[in-house]
Each structure stands twice: as structure tokens, then as C-alpha cells.
UniProtKB/TrEMBL annotation:
It comes from Aerosakkonema funiforme FACHB-1375. It is an enzyme of class 1 (oxidoreductase). Keywords: Cobalamin biosynthesis, Oxidoreductase. This is Cobalt-precorrin-6A reductase. GO terms for biological process: cobalamin biosynthetic process. The keyword Zinc does not apply.
Length: 248
């Protein structure tokens, strides 16, 4: 949202692609920003870029939305449209004021479930519904809870992965730090598993609460992708847009 607001402030025409009406409502309601709602198959992305007269693609999708980024890169390469990946600034332990002494950083969910990290723990999973099936084998070896979006898809996936209704918390973010902390205390959580999502994804809040409550925080790194160009600098992202708009 910060990126979209900065683009609007710079008076740069922009088409934003989102998948739900709820996501549309999160963006500034200004004429210069057009929000398109829908899902695009790999074969439809190129057609979409041409139909919308897109001159450059600024990819700000979720760091775990690998398929979206890969499809966008392929379409831009085929159509010779400039592409830039905008990465959320990462939080790195000692380089930040928030340092959790019980922080575990892992490369993949597979590494987590293959190890003994979860053994005997009361674990809160804040990882999205798609990853929940990976944890089904651990339902008998640990006490698992999950926080998901309040959608039938998410809740049904959690139940199918072995979570009982009393171990599912469904709420759309942002969630206040006080409510987050209260939830951890209510469920007597000893470990939280989350994706590396930066401050904008609430990772800093989880680190702070984990440190305060003495909870182990497991942070899963996003998948590695070879991006043609990548930046975490907001000003560089805006400059990229400006340069390509000026070519029109």
C-alpha cells in the first residue's frame, strides 16, 4: 500500500492487479490508480499487459508468491517490457532494535517439518493456509494452532489439515500487537512459525512479542528467485516507474 501511495503521489498512472475485492479496498481511491480484480493464468498475463497498455512492470507481490513472479518475468521477457522486483525490506536480527534471543531462521517449511523443532511444543502457525497440510503429521507430536484469513477456503484447508475449530483463529490483518499478544497467552504458545515478511507483513511485531514473552520464533525465508532486477529502495522503484512513463 505504501508503494501504491507513493506512485499516486508522484502522479504516475498505474494499473494494480489484485485477486480479491477485499484487496482492492486497501488501495487509495484516486483516479490515477486503476485497480483490476481477478486471477490471471500464465497465458493470460501477456494479453493483460498488452490490453492495459503496460509499459513497465513493478512486481510487488508477496515474497512467497513464486508463481506470480515467475509468470510476470516470463511475460515481460517475451514482450520486452521492463521488469523490476520490489522486495519488502528484510529484518535482520542484530541490525535491528528488535532482537529475539530465541529466533530460528530456516530456509524452507520442509526443513522445519523434517527436523524436531516442533516436538512437544504449543505452536502457532501464521503461515497461510496453503502450507498447513505440511504440518498434519505433527498434529500428534505437538499441539498446533493456526491463524488464517476469515474465508471458507482458509478455514476448510485448516480443518482438512487436522486443526479443530478451537485451534483456528480467523481474522483479517492488520491485527494489533495487544490482540496478538493476548492470543499467544490465551493458547499458552511456546513457539510461533511465520514467513519472513518484513515490517509491512508484521514480522517486527511478532519478533517483539516473542522476545517479551520468551516465545521461540521460527522465521521461514522466502523461496530464492533469480529476478532480472530487484530493489528494496522505494525511491528506486518510483524512479523506475517515472523513467518508463517518460518514454511514452
Amino acid at each position: 500500500m505504501q508503494l501504491a501511495a507513493a506512485i499516486a503521489q508522484a502522479q504516475l498512472p498505474c494499473t494494480i492487479s489484485v485477486t480479491t475485492e477485499t484487496a482492492r479496498s486497501l488501495y487509495p481511491d484516486v483516479p490515477i490508480l486503476r485497480v483490476w480484480v481477478g486471477r490471471l493464468s500464465p497465458s493470460e498475463i501477456g494479453q493483460f499487459l498488452l490490453a492495459q497498455n503496460i509499459v513497465a512492470v513493478l512486481d510487488a507481490s508477496h515474497p512467497f508468491a513464486v508463481e506470480i513472479s515467475q509468470n510476470a518475468i516470463a511475460a515481460c521477457s517475451q514482450l520486452q517490457i521492463p521488469y523490476l522486483r520490489y522486495e519488502r525490506p528484510r529484518l535482520q536480527g542484530e541490525n535491528n532494535a528488535i532482537v529475539n534471543s530465541k529466533l530460528i531462521q530456516l530456509d524452507t517449511f520442509a526443513t522445519l517439518v523434517a527436523g524436531n523443532y516442533l516436538e512437544g511444543q504449543r505452536v502457532l502457525l501464521t503461515v497461510g493456509y496453503k502450507a498447513l497440510p505440511l504440518f498434519r503429521p505433527w498434529q500428534e507430536r505437538s499441539t498446533l494452532f493456526t491463524k488464517v484469513l476469515p474465508s471458507s477456503t482458509s478455514i476448510e484447508a485448516a480443518i482438512a489439515a487436522g486443526f479443530t475449530p478451537d485451534r483456528i483463529f480467523a481474522m483479517r490483518p492488520p491485527i494489533s500487537a495487544d490482540l496478538e499478544k493476548a492470543l499467544w497467552r490465551h493458547w499458552q504458545i511456546s513457539m510461533v512459525v511465520t514467513k519472513a515478511s518484513g515490517a509491512s507483513g508484521g514480522e517486527d511485531v511478532k519478533r517483539s512479542i516473542a522476545d517479551e514473552l520468551g516465545v521461540t520464533l521460527v522465521v521461514i525465508d522466502p523461496p530464492a528467485i533469480e529476478y532480472p532486477q530487484v530493489t528494496s529502495d522505494l525511491s528506486e522503484a518510483i524512479e523506475f516507474c517515472q523513467q518508463n512513463v517518460d518514454k511514452i
